[in-house]
Please model this.
Amino acid sequence: MKRILIADDKEENLYLLRSLLETENYLVLSAANGSEALDLLRNTPCDIIVSDILMPVMDGFALCIECKKDPKLRQIPFIFYTATYTDPKDEAFALGLGADRFLTKPLEPEIIVKEIQQMLARPLVSVRNNGEKQEDEKVVLKLYNQTLVRKLETKMAELELLNTQLKEQIAEQKRTQKKLRKSEKLIREITASIPGVVYQFQMEPDGKMFFSFVSDGANEILNVSPEAIYGDAQKAFSMVHPEELKSVMESIQESASTISPWSKIFRATMQPGVYKWIQGVSVPQKLENGNILWNGTFFDYSEIKEYQTNLENKNSELIKANDELDRFVYSASHDMRAPLTSLMGLINLTKEETANDEMQLRLDMMNETVVKLDDFIRKILDYSRNKRQEIIKESIAWDTLIDDCWNSVKFHNTNKKCVFNKHIQQMEDFYSDKNRISIVLNNLLANALKYSDCEKPAIEITVDVNAHEGKAIVKIADNGIGISEEHQERIFEMFFRATNISTGSGLGLYIAKDTIEKLGGRLWLSSELGTGTTFYLEIPNAFLYA
Ligand code: ADP
Model:
């Protein structure tokens, strides 16, 4: 087995070359410099030397010189394998020393192996001849010195270049640091002028949390210095009211896992036992290092919270008062109707027993007033019922319902010819609150009769119903006095009357609209003065099992 000595001061170079050559079945000896190599060569016979040039203690040139001086070593083929000495003058000098090959790093493994194989296959005599052709020692030394100086100069130039580059890099770093400090100062100034705390919060993949920025607002809002909560988030968490800590932590985890904005209102301790309401909002993002980073703000929420609490209290008081008022109106109205009904009965009885015309006239007037009052109370009861009672879903046969409603209002017209038409198209079973719809239809039909045009020979009222595809559209058209455009917008307001002919309460349409809306429907109209009015109702089919 052929023995190869490799000399190189770099551990990794030795390792690579050794591995390569051992797989080619060579026995490899290695040395870290020329001196070590020389010792090895003098004790152990070798078949070839592969040496680096730039090495400590003794370089490759010196090793070559020593080998060629030594009669026992001079026949061993000598290969320079270098990365630093690559000048043609270096090669010429190396070959001049008696080296057999001058190879520059890096080379493909197979080329190195081939070179070594060729060298080993060469007849010994030619090698010996090369050794004999050495120049005398003085010349060699002179050339060696020149080579070293040349190398030194190149190295010096390289170092100078490196030095300049380093200086530039340091200057650039200083400039960047200065810019950073400046922008940090700017951020601090800007965030300090914001009425709240601006912060940057982070969570590491292992769950560790910390503040990477806290603005000066912390002094005022949280009663702590930014430095006190900067870094580990434990200090900040210890300020959260114990009752809210769990939900605060859960909300942070939720925001982190879904990368969705965080928003929380919680109490923070200002001093033992003294809390302040704080609102925190922030937007998270996932960083390349796996951390989640939130940019956000904390605001003092105390005033809004106080306002909110007051508002909530007032609201529940109002709801209570309203409810009580509703109950009172309902029972008062209810109780008032009974004496009115007796009064109407008594008036009618007295009328029957009186022949006096003047008395009859007065009794009629009394009756009319009582009827009006009764109508007003009835409407208030309707309104109250609509507010209080649950919606009852029941099957509605539109044909029958319209007839019933018409029959209950038609007696309002005592002296004028009246033509009533209805067109019903009911394509599906319809469910809604029959009682509520009756209240609305009664009001609209009664108005159609009430606001008739005395100029016209007959009252004409037409009702169209079209119930299909989940809703009913009801149209109630009359040929009455009509409503001027300016009044149409206000017609559904409470106590609004569009004409002085009206002796009503101005409640009917208000209640009708309110009732229809309770059923999820709509009420609107179209009207022209002197021509007539059409009211439209849209009522959703409440389907029994919907
Ligand atoms: P009331 O009839 O008791 O005055 P409503 O709320 O029912 O109260 O009606 C409000 C006003 O709308 C009436 O005063 C009347 O001027 C006008 N109005 C309602 N329906 C009609 C109608 N069909 N034709 C003309 N005017 C109407």
Summary: The CA atoms of residues 305 and 311 lie 10 Å apart. The radius of gyration is 54 Å.
